[in-house]
Design a protein that fits this description.
Helix content: 40-55%
Largest sheet: none
Distance between the termini: 92 Å
Radius of gyration: 22 Å
Number of strands: 0
């Protein structure tokens, strides 16, 4: 590799979409996404769930759980010998993705139900907490109406 080409490849930044295009197993050559959920890959013996999409979520600028949990940790892997700056490019792409979606780091606590990042000192994210609160309220109201019905002669 000549010196001019080496300097050019050193300065190239990697976008989160390029990072996904290079590393994501869900991404098809036409830009479509298989949508395989990472949780279904972890459970052995369970059927795999997926929701195919016409376009990659990361390429659209949206959050993708598979990308966050499977692809972003690759930024910590050392660079191969043939591309010594790959780790720095991946780290820059990870930083851009996290700043775009206001993610702190990959060690951030996650919701017990959906796996999305959750606020500090909470068990569930705001959406799941609201859903659980509604379910609890409905159950308590249903229980009180049954008690009234049995008490009344």
């Amino acid at each position: 590799m000549n010196r001019k080409h080496a300097n050019k490849s050193r300065n190239v930044r990697m976008s989160p979409a390029q990072f996904a295009r290079d590393e994501c197993a869900n991404l098809l050559p036409g830009g479509a996404c298989l949508g395989v959920r990472i949780d279904s890959l972890i459970d052995n013996g369970q059927p795999k769930t997926c929701s195919p999409r016409d376009r990659c979520l990361v390429a659209e600028g949206k959050r993708c759980d598979y990308f966050e949990r499977a692809i972003l940790p690759l930024a910590d892997k050392p660079s191969p010998v043939d591309d010594p700056n790959l780790q720095a490019k991946r780290a820059a792409a990870r930083q851009e993705y996290q700043s775009r979606h206001l993610l702190r780091d990959r060690n951030q606590k996650r919701c017990r139900d959906c796996g999305n990042p959750r606020p500090h000192r909470r068990r569930y994210c705001d959406l799941c907490a609201a859903r659980r609160r509604r379910e609890t309220y409905r159950r308590s109201r249903a229980g009180k109406s049954e008690v009234r019905a049995t008490v009344t002669p």
